[in-house]
Design a protein that fits this description.
Chain A is built from 24 helices and 32 strands. Chain A has 771 residues and is an alpha/beta fold. In chain A, the strands form eight sheets. In chain A, strands 14-13-24-23-22-15-16 form a seven-stranded mixed beta sheet. Chain A has a six-stranded mixed beta sheet with strand order 28-30-29-32-27-31. A five-stranded mixed beta sheet of chain A has the order 2-1-5-3-4, with helices on one face. The longest helix of chain B has 26 residues, at 391-416. Classes of the chains: A alpha/beta (771), B alpha/beta (425).
Chain lengths: 771, 425
């Protein structure tokens, strides 16, 4: 099958040029000739089972499915001949005999492929007079509503689970008419990509549970947008009705998210309407929060910070959430600079700031190219949960035979084959140094390192692969020795001719770095809290949940004279520490831009008006800037500001690698060390308030502390015990789970989840006490 | 002329023991081939000359099927024997497994040699416990005698034989569903192309042959392809096992040359049971359309003659029905079978078999509607030729066959809400 050969086929009298071996249905789709189909989906394998796309091909006695037919030169196809139409109408009738014809009460009504095709190929009356098939219902979890009586057995969802999500959670059991699609052993559908089956399902069998019976497709207005969580920057469609976000769907963009989105991107919109939303400006007066007008609140904010800045500009610090838009970040930078302060940072979860801080941490290659690597070494990354669609690309590479290796402080549940080297955080550094040594790289850790066979194997794998990549993930970036890990990764990359990159943590981490929202000579996100400032400007930050060391953050803010929080949500920690809270619009309510992991700038418009009295962040900052009497805040639109940013920050991203690792290993502890991963549904303020996502297995699994059996028995603890996790002054009570995924010397205690606010470093020393 | 090939040595009391099988020249052909390193092409030519066509029902020429395999393909090659004999009325392979399992073992080894397969599977219907034991025992004996395993008879040829017991699904008798089942998946037919000769078991080139086909191979090669061919008639070479059941006195399996008149087979089966007259015959398993008894009496048992009469020789499963038989009830029972056995993968079969069954069932139960006969014809027509595998056709064809000859019985059921058979008496 030489696919490059151009051939000519004839479809319905129309001559079409195409490549030999292409699928007939793809050729007709490209030519705008519609052939009805249900089971066929161009991102899934071919089932050829629905029989809706039967067409007539000259010299073939029976109608054949266009979805499974490869074109050959001179092929003559009729998609609407009497034979083809009869076959298509037959299939339609068969599909409808057992399908409930109650479209008016079906949630899929109005956007149902079966309904649409039935208009063209169905009959107006049924000849089937018997009772229809009824399938008992199954609860598959908080995200997907099932109505399997409506199922037409196209198996798209089954194939998706197998081929894309990498979890065979959905399958077909039973034979013939008794075949039902469901979960194999009456479990939930727990994949972090599960929501995509809602889009794939051509009928109302699998629909969105949070959206169930909320609106009709024709009532919705579609707006394009960009997902605000991980660094993929998935293209989305925000569906609104009467100024309310009703649901989020993927928008296709083959180079970024293809046609998929993660469940976090799909269902986080529920957080927009959280009761935590800050509806109006608040000023703290004598320890009490009182409602204020915008004028008063802005005045209080401006005067408070200005007073501090005037006395000593170094006493002002700005902390920015990496999910803030480019426009917001740029204005926050201008304000900070205008006040004369050098202290600004967005790297809230980073602890180790040694080394070259001006480098823009990015993927180092395109997202799509990840699926073509031959080998990858991922350091400190739970890529599957942190960045589900990047994991999807890596999975594709793995399925193509790429060797994927992990160095992590916990064993991951992966959906592809990979070698995992699991150790405590200090062990990660040693393992990496050993790989660097095995690869022949030079670095200062050489002497203490023992090189094992497994290190040699990884080094050899990277060296022998034509296209190898080394990536540092979310965990690495919160690691106390991040810069050493990065340095060693650079050494290995150089020695093995691999590329090195960072998986940016959040939707606009790269954007913030591109704009340079980091201190040149001032204090960074860690030192700003370690050496408390008198005044802070917080942009979209929840100090108790978004920072590497929330105890340190809250203490610093509490003692400050003036904390101005521009925020969409109230949170206990902010209420305790801030002086002025300015209500900012949330996801979907503001225009703005993000730069994703591969450096693509993507802008989006606001789709709904901000809740209550809240305002887009860039507008709040613009007014603040004016109140500070700083020049250059006269923007009429976010586009105007963006234009300026594009001009000043034009040019692609460069690969940056750090030099050989310097400094001392800080992750060595005498007792137990915390593995403070940020779970998927605790990553930012919006998703933390998305109620359905918080009911998922991933969210429920993130409410416990985990240790392996030997750590538990050494501490005299057992599975299910209530324990107190103690870090310095901080203390959090949690249920202990014995989990073999956690290495010796470590306690997995999630960050960003309720109860973790009083704890210290994500990867710091801790102790366990039985309660 | 009966019992010339597979049943040739049935006079021996324990043919399933390797000594008795070898006492009549068993394993000599295999030994000769391995010793002389007979070129596979030569064996294929012999099979082509013999006119042997697949005995599982489809009748595809065996030599041609073997020739499709690229012996030099860098992947594994597999031979699979289909002993998932599930077609209602068919019970010939069961007797091969029970009485002449070594012929099958030898045939599988020869076929494996021809296609360069080093592992062969026999997929045996799960209900066949005794036949399975006999066959497994035959493998064990053959292994002990050095015919199975590595370096067979010092020839350098390796071949393992494995048995896979089915789980009771009729559809697994379809060759690609059978492959899925061996692979541990749900038994659902695969879309073809690609054909198993290119992408078969575990994605490798695979030949799938019926039990009877493979069991015929040693005799064909020993006695000569021409001799086998000349047993039969033009386009239907050799002899065939016919399993005859129903209202005959002496139901059983008979090996007869292709082209033998039905009347002879009927005679061998002892004719009709006492006091009844022949009414209808299903000549090739339940999926073949019914033929009236008087028409059948003039036909010979070969592919072309039965096809010309509007039915199929199929697997050679002959079901004879007498004049007390209600054809509506027959179709009701058969319809239920296909409704239960459809794999559910493709729409026309999944939905259509249930619909057909329900229509026939309500006619049988006195709830037929005037439009039902037209509806039956239309629904079966809508299934036919539109599914991935032949199960849809198998469910549809008997309906058309019944209505072709016995529409009046269906009409009577609809009009009178009772059975026509016995109504006059």
């Amino acid at each position: 099958m030489s696919e490059e050969k151009t051939i000519t086929i004839e479809v319905d009298g129309q001559s079409l040029e195409t490549k030999l071996g292409a699928l007939l249905i793809d050729v007709t789709d490209a030519a705008g000739i519609n052939i009805p189909r249900f089971c066929y989906h161009n991102k899934l394998s071919i089932a050829a089972s629905c029989r809706m796309c039967l067409v007539e091909v000259a010299k073939v006695p029976k109608p054949i499915p266009a979805c499974a037919t490869q074109v050959m030169d001179g092929m003559v196809v009729q998609t609407r001949s009497p034979m083809a139409l009869a076959a298509q109408k037959s299939t339609m009738e068969f599909l409808l005999i057992n399908h409930p014809l109650d479209c008016p009460v079906c949630d899929q009504g109005g956007e149902c492929e079966l309904q649409d095709v039935a208009v063209g190929y169905g009959s107006d009356a049924t000849r089937f007079v018997e009772g229809k098939r009824v399938v008992p219902e199954n609860n598959v979890g908080p995200l997907i509503a099932t109505d399997m009586t409506r199922c037409i057995h196209c198996t798209r969802c089954v194939r998706f689970g197998d081929e894309v999500a990498g979890m065979r959670e959905i399958g077909a059991t039973g034979r013939g008419e008794h075949m039902t699609i469901g979960t194999f052993v009456a479990r939930n559908v727990d994949s972090e990509l599960s929501g995509n089956v809602i889009d794939l399902c051509p009928v109302g069998a699998l629909t969105s549970k949070p959206f169930q019976y909320r609106a009709r497709a024709w009532e919705l207005t579609r707006h394009t947008g960009v997902a605000p969580h991980d660094s993929v920057g998935s293209n989305i469609q925000i569906h609104t009705r009467r100024n309310e976000v009703m649901r989020v769907h993927p928008d296709s963009n083959d180079s970024i998210n293809e046609i998929w989105i993660s469940d976090r991107d799909r269902f986080s919109y529920e957080g927009i309407k959280s009761e935590d939303r800050l509806a109006q400006p608040l000023i703290k007066k004598n320890g009490e929060w009182t409602a204020a007008s915008w004028e008063d609140a802005l005045e209080a904010a401006a005067s408070g910070l200005k007073e501090i800045a005037t006395a000593d500009a170094e006493q002002v610090g700005t902390l920015i959430s990496p999910t803030a838009t480019l426009e917001e970040i740029a204005l926050a930078q201008k304000i900070t600079e205008g006040l004369g302060s050098p202290n600004i940072d967005y790297r809230l979860r980073q602890e180790d700031f040694r080394g070259n801080s001006t480098a823009v941490p990015w993927l180092g290659q395109s997202i799509a190219s990840l699926e073509h690597v031959n080998a990858a070494l991922l350091i400190g990354s739970n890529i599957r949960k942190d960045q589900p669609l990047l994991a999807h690309r890596v999975r594709k590479a793995a399925l193509n035979g790429a060797k994927i290796q992990f160095i992590n402080p916990l064993q991951l549940d992966l959906h592809f084959d990979a070698a995992q080297m699991v150790s405590d955080p200090a062990g990660m550094v040693h393992n990496l140094a050993a790989i660097a040594e095995a690869a022949g790289g030079s670095h200062h850790l050489t002497e203490q390192i023992e090189v094992g066979e497994e290190h040699k194997a990884i080094a050899a794998e990277l060296k022998d692969s034509e296209s190898a990549v080394i990536l540092l993930g979310n965990i690495a970036q919160s690691h106390p020795d991040y810069t050493i890990l990065y340095g060693l990764a650079s050494v290995i990359a150089k020695a093995t001719d691999s590329s090195v990159g960072v998986i940016p943590v959040a939707a606009n981490s790269v954007g913030a770095a591109v704009l340079g929202a980091i201190p040149d000579h001032g204090l960074n996100a860690h030192t700003m809290l370690e050496s408390p400032r008198k005044g802070y400007l917080l942009l979209g930050v929840e100090p108790g949940r978004d920072t590497n060391n929330p105890a340190l953050a809250c203490a610093a803010l509490k003692n400050a004279e003036c904390v101005v929080a521009v925020t969409a949500y109230r949170s206990p920690c902010l209420e305790e520490t801030a002086n002025v809270m300015l209500p900012m619009s949330a996801f979907s309510e503001t225009s703005g831009s993000f730069v994703n992991a591969e450096g693509t700038w993507q802008s989006f418009a606001g789709t709904t008006t901000p809740a209550g009295e809240s305002r887009p962040g860039w507008k709040i900052l613009r007014v603040l800037g004016n109140l500070f009497d700083i020049q250059g805040f006269d923007y009429n639109s976010s586009e105007e500001l963006l234009g300026e940013l594009k001009e000043s920050h034009a040019g692609g991203l460069k690969i940056t690698s750090l030099g050989a690792a310097k400094g001392k290993i800080r992750s060595v502890v005498t007792g137990l060390i915390r593995v403070g991963e940020t779970p998927i549904y605790a990553s930012d303020a919006l998703v933390r308030r998305a109620v359905s996502l918080q009911k998922t297995k991933d969210a429920r699994d993130a409410t416990v502390a985990r240790v392996n059996l030997s750590v538990a028995s050494n501490a005299g603890l057992s599975d299910g015990d209530k324990v107190a996790v103690v870090q310095g002054e901080g203390r959090a009570e949690m249920i202990l789970k014995v989990d073999a995924h956690i290495p010796d010397g470590c306690v997995w205690v999630p960050a960003g989840v309720p109860g973790s606010e009083s704890l210290g470093d994500q990867f710091g020393e801790l102790s366990l006490e039985k309660v | 002329m009966a019992n010339e090939v597979i049943f040739k040595n049935l006079d021996l009391d324990r043919l399933w023991d390797i000594e008795q099988y070898r006492s009549r020249g068993g394993y000599e052909v295999l030994t000769k081939i391995l010793k002389e390193k007979t070129p596979p092409g030569e064996i294929i030519d012999g099979m082509k000359t013999s006119g042997l066509r697949g005995r599982g029902g489809a009748g595809f020429p065996t030599g041609l099927k073997w020739s499709f395999i690229n012996r030099e393909a860098p992947t594994d090659k597999y031979l699979v024997c289909n002993s998932d004999e599930g077609e209602p009325g068919t019970f010939k392979d069961r007797d091969i497994l029970r009485y002449n399992p070594h012929a099958l073992v030898e045939g599988m080894l020869i076929a494996s040699y021809v296609i360069n397969a080093h592992r062969a599977y026999n997929y045996i219907r799960g209900e066949f416990w005794e036949p399975y034991q006999r066959f497994q025992n035959a493998i064990d004996q053959a292994r002990a005698a050095g015919f199975v395993g590595n370096n067979i008879l010092g020839s350098g040829f390796d071949c393992e034989l494995n048995v896979h017991l089915g789980g009771g699904a009729y559809v697994c008798g379809e060759e690609t569903a059978l492959l899925e089942s061996i692979e541990g998946k749900k038994g659902q037919p695969r879309y073809k192309p690609p054909f198993p000769a290119h992408v078969g078991l575990y994605g490798c080139p695979t030949v799938i042959n019926n039990t009877e086909t493979l069991a015929s191979v040693p005799t064909i090669l020993r006695d000569g392809a021409e001799k086998f061919r000349d047993l039969g008639v033009e386009n239907s070479g050799g002899s065939k096992l016919f399993s005859i059941s129903g209202h005959v006195k002496n139901p059983g399996v008979f090996e007869l040359p292709m082209g033998t008149p039905f009347s002879e087979l009927f005679e061998l089966a002892g004719g009709m049971r006492d006091g009844s007259k022949i009414k209808a015959v299903i000549p090739g398993g339940s999926s073949s359309p019914v033929i009236p008894g008087e028409v059948m009496m003039d036909l010979t048992m070969d592919y072309d003659t039965i096809a010309k009469a509007g039915s199929m020789l199929g697997s050679g499963a002959v079901i004879v029905m007498d004049d007390t038989t209600c054809m509506v009830k027959v179709l009701d029972r058969m319809g239920y079978f296909y409704y239960e056995e459809s794999c559910g993968q493709c729409t026309p079969c999944r939905e259509g078999t249930g619909w057909l069954y329900r229509i026939v069932h309500r006619i049988e139960n006195g709830q037929g509607r005037p439009e039902d006969i037209d509806l039956l014809m239309d629904v079966q027509n809508r299934i036919r030729g539109k599914t991935i595998c032949a199960l849809g056709d198998a469910a549809a064809m008997p309906v058309a066959g019944m209505l072709r000859y016995y529409q009046d019985e269906f009409q009577y059921h609809i009009d009178h809400k009772r059975c026509m058979v016995g109504a006059d008496a």
